[in-house]
Structures are given as structure tokens and as C-alpha cells.
């Protein structure tokens, strides 16, 4: 029942309607039914009334038309403003759902400990959710991450363990260390964001319905975004595909260093990894449990080089007044390319995952950009925004 109440709070729905939404959406994660979706209640587009605590403020983010890019392409390029989440990123949704899932399954009791392996945003979302619900939070992360993220997690009360960055198949990988830490404690759970499908369910139950509602009942031609765990792409794709009877095209956007573009282009035969990327939180070396049920629904994929992504960070700032991180900028580049491929007048939605605040010491530092060979990717008239040394 707790989940229904908090779902109602998050979506601003009466509890009865929310329970219809929750159960019909849940049915989707198995064999999805368009009928079930058709019966779903409408989702409010904004928080108009007081909400119940931090978790009540998660979701219902604005859908922003990127005006310059829309005019330039003759299309509608729409960005879901996840940087406006209370914890600052799209991962607040997944954080809430994995904690609710653990509560519903009786895996955690009041005063317990949530343990997760995360490079950043999920940990920050979890740290907020844990504070608001009275749980302890333990985070394992690769020691390559920025000091700002470690500091923020500690300020939010999390116990942070930066550990050597080793591959997933090494038992010292941060995810395996997180699992073992939870196993050693009483009343503790490893929320396992990569393979716990409560993550994907967050987007079936919230992101997808919000986009549908905000586009006047699904008046859109395409949805595209990059993946880390795959929860956002998989869950949103599942919802939009089912609700539109397969009409809305759903594509993956992929950074260098990820295997998923080659996987989709080769019809599942190849998993080629080339190079690395300055983007954080995205790029994947395997098909996670979150992505597995929905990867077959995808209609295509685009590979976006870092040069394009960094240029778009600066363009969004200058032309749209929007301060977004590199994964969001990659998504905007991809949405623009998808719009051009689908033709004039098409309407595309993407995800603005988080703000640039978490990366500004890198993205706006001349030294850092030079070290990555990216200064020249930024048009000369935009280089005035490189204000850090
Ligand atoms: C900045 C950023 N963008 C995008 C994503 C990808 O979201 P998902 O894990 O739902 O695929 C993440 C995930 O951590 C992220 O931190």
C-alpha cells in the first residue's frame, strides 16, 4: 500500500486512480497490453499542489521545446527537463523505485541500509531518498570520479567508498563490492540498479506517461536517448510503443566506447567497443536486465562523437539558455539528427538527464578541454564560455 500512496503523491493522482495505473503498468512488464494502457488515468503535467516530502517532488518535469534547434530543423525538438528533478537528475526516478521495490518485497525495514554501486547520479538520488525515508546509504564508486560528486554524496550523509576502477568481470568491481557489503550487514539491501527492473518500471510508470500526456496524447514521431543502466530508454520505449500501437519510433543514442550501437546495427550479432567518451553515466558494455525486455522494440540507433556532444553543451547554453551535462547534450544532438532523418515537421522527444553543475570543472575548463583535444570542436564565437583555466 505504501507504494500506491507514494505513487499517488508523485503523480498527483487520487490513490484509487494511482492503484489502477500501478497495476496496469505492472502488467506491461510481462506481456504488455495496449488495452491496459488505454485504461490508464491521465497524468498531471506539473506539481501544482504541495507534495509529500522529497519523494513526492520526483517526476512531473517540464517538456521544453528547444526553440532554436526546432526552427533550424523545421521540426519540434523537445527535451524532458530531468535536470529539474529535486535531486538534480533523471536517476531520482530509478532511486525512488528501487527503494520502494525493496520495501514492498520486505527486503528492508525502518532504519536499514541501502547499498549501491554507482558512478554518480543514482547515488545522489539514493542519498536524498534515504535521508527522506530514514535509511542509511552506502555508495561504492570507481575512484576515477570527480571530487565534487564524492563530496556531495558525503554531504548528503552517504558513506562513500571510492575503489579502483576495474572491469565488471573482476570481483573487485564496485558493483560486486557493493553487493558483498550489503550481504555483510543485517537489514541491508543492494539495490542493483543495472539489473533490478524496478529501475525500468520507474519509466514505464512515470516518464512514459508524462511524455504521452505532455505531447497531447502521444502526438510525437520519435523518442531517442542514451543508456547507462538502460532503464530510461527501455521503460519509456515500452510505454510509448504500447500506447501508440508501435507507431512512435524509438532509437538509441550511443557514445564512443559503448557496444550497443554495434549491437543494434548488426541485429544483435556484434558487440564492438571503440574508444572512450567524455560523457558520464552513459555507455554500456552489455545488455542489462533493464534493457533486455525492450531492446527488440528499438527501431534504430545513432553513434554520437564527443565533438558533437561538447559543441551542443555550449550551443544549448548560448542559444537556448539551458545548462546541461554532456549526456543530455549527446541526446539533443541525437534528437536533432533523428528529426532530420524522419523529415520536416517531425516531433522528437529526448531526455535532458542532468545539469552541467556536476561537471563544470571539466566541461568549462580550457586545460581539460585541451587535454581531450576538444577546444576546436567548440565554435569560436562560443569559446567565450570557456571561463575556467
Ligand atoms: C548523466 C546521466 N545521463 C544518463 C544516464 C542514463 O540513464 P539510465 O541509467 O536510465 O540508462 C545516467 C545514468 O546514470 C546519467 O547519470
Automatic annotation (TrEMBL):
GO MF terms, alphabetically ordered: cysteine synthase activity
GO cellular component, one term: mitochondrion
Chief localization: mitochondrion
InterPro entries: Cys_Synth/Cystath_Beta-Synth, P-phosphate_BS, TrpB-like_PALP, TrpB-like_PALP_sf
Alphabetical list of PROSITE patterns matching this protein: CYS_SYNTHASE
EC category name: transferase
UniProt signal peptide: 1-27
Gene Ontology terms: biological process: cysteine biosynthetic process from serine
UniProt cofactor(s): pyridoxal 5'-phosphate
Pfam families tied to this protein: PALP
Occurrences of domain Tryptophan synthase beta chain-like PALP (ranges): 57-354
Pathway: Amino-acid biosynthesis; L-cysteine biosynthesis; L-cysteine from L-serine: step 2/2
Assigned keywords, A-Z: Amino-acid biosynthesis, Cysteine biosynthesis, Mitochondrion, Pyridoxal phosphate, Signal, Transferase, Transit peptide
EC number: 2.5.1.47
Localization in the cell: Mitochondrion
Catalytically driven reaction(s): O-acetyl-L-serine + hydrogen sulfide = L-cysteine + acetate; O-succinyl-L-serine + hydrogen sulfide = L-cysteine + succinate
Family: Belongs to the cysteine synthase/cystathionine beta-synthase family.
Function field: Catalyzes the conversion of O-succinyl-L-serine into cysteine, the last step in the cysteine biosynthesis pathway. Can also use O-acetyl-L-serine.
Record-given protein name: Cysteine synthase 1
